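Design request, tokens follow.
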């Protein structure tokens, strides 16, 4: 009879809660990590992926090639050392990371591997400055954090509708714009039907085989509609970076360029099979509902906000909603007709503002946007300071702000909201690229 080993059994027996002295030592390394953190994490990934190439199926190779993953981990180490005395400010970050780990298939047995190569990288980069006393403090600090992640990820997996990755068939594809396509996914295992409802705003982690890389790659794609018992819908932008999705990379770009996964997905015909793990994520509307919800998105970042919007408008009591969306132009303005219909349905409870960064020729309404629409339309990038206080619900201390889009867009929106007096606790965001958005 097999004996079930608890997932926390990978944590070494000698790991104990950090002592005040160990916390002091870890905190003292913050400026060192700010200076040398990227060098440390770069070394860590190099040695770890060389020793364990199977982990290339888990980590984003485009994130590795761009250096974003190394920067993200370095930032996490700095934040951990800075807040080691009180981890409360990091709770939200830890929960987001744990959800992504669980969805990606990170297992407890991966933590000893990461720990070994992380400590080894610090020793390599800092040399004698990383004294035995500091090594001991960081050993316990690492494993205390790892234990927390292992426990959280175990809880997430236990609550999931299925373990690990399962096969979904592309039942339909709908072109939303020249570069954005929605995929309707049905499980091949019909015992999963009806699909368990997810929380609008959550994402599906898709895994595809990338021929040019000769291994799997995973990406998080938001479930872009309200829950449906028969299928999932994800909406994917085809990123520039490769010639096509069959594994033939552009000659001037490395095989790990951004766009490998999105181009692979876009190249798949209806009827193709892909793998996906369970819905996950913390970018959701709370219960009870806030009195006012402000959605801010740019490009394909509309997807989690759209899923939440579709769910909110079907409730018996719909909160006040402000919808702020940035797009290049009317051609790239995805789901425009759908959102317009919601605005007409909700009436005065719904306020829409659309920014076109590259507006086309004058449209039938003479608005210079190349399209006749209900609502307010402005040229340029999304500029919150150009909007009135009522539109942004700045008078409502309970209003919640949901932001999704490219990293620069989200950073700019967070900064603008804080400068306008919005509390950090009222700002929510979803970042699919490695790293976290800086809160002011």
């Amino acid at each position: 009879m097999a004996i079930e080993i608890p997932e926390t059994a990978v944590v070494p027996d000698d790991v104990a809660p950090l002592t005040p002295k160990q916390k002091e030592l870890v905190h003292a390394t913050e400026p060192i990590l700010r200076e040398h953190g990227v060098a440390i994490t770069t070394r860590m990934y190099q040695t770890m992926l060389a020793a364990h190439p199977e982990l290339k199926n888990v980590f984003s190779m485009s994130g590795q090639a761009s250096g974003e993953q190394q920067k993200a981990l370095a930032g996490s180490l700095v934040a951990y050392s800075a807040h080691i005395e009180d981890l409360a400010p990091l709770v939200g970050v830890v929960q987001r990371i744990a959800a992504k780990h669980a969805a990606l298939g990170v297992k407890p047995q991966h933590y000893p591997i990461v720990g070994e190569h992380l400590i080894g990288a610090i020793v390599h980069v800092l040399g004698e400055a990383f004294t035995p006393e500091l090594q001991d403090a960081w050993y316990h600090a690492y494993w205390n954090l790892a234990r927390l992640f292992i426990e959280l990820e175990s809880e997430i997996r236990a609550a999931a509708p299925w373990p690990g990755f399962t096969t979904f068939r592309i039942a339909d594809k709908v072109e939303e714009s020249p570069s954005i396509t929605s995929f309707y996914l049905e499980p091949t295992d019909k015992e999963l039907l009806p699909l368990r409802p997810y929380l609008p705003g959550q994402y599906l982690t898709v895994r595809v085989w990338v021929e040019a890389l000769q291994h799997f790659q995973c990406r998080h794609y938001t479930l872009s509609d309200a829950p449906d018992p028969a299928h999932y819908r994800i909406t994917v932008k085809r990123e520039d970076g490769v010639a096509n999705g069959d594994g033939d990379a552009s000659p001037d770009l490395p095989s790990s360029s951004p766009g490998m996964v999105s181009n692979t997905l876009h190249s798949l015909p209806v009827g193709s099979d892909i793998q996906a793990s369970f819905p996950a994520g913390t970018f959701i509307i709370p219960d009870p509902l806030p009195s006012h919800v402000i959605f801010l998105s740019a490009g394909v970042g509309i997807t989690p906000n759209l899923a939440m919007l579709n769910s909110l408008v079907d409730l018996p009591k719909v909160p006040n909603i402000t919808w702020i969306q940035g797009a290049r132009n009317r051609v790239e303005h995805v789901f425009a007709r759908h959102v317009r219909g919601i605005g007409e349905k909700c009436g005065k409870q719904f306020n829409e503002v659309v920014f076109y960064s590259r507006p086309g020729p004058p449209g039938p309404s003479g608005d210079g946007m190349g399209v006749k629409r209900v609502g307010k339309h402005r040229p340029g990038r999304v500029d919150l300071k150009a909007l009135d206080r009522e539109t942004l619900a700045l008078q409502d201390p309970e209003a919640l702000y949901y932001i999704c889009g490219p990293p620069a867009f989200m950073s700019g929106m967070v900064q603008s909201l804080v400068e306008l007096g919005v509390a950090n606790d009222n700002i929510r965001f979803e970042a699919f690229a490695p790293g976290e958005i800086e809160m002011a």
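Comment from the thread starter after seeing the answer: thanks! The mean pLDDT is 90.
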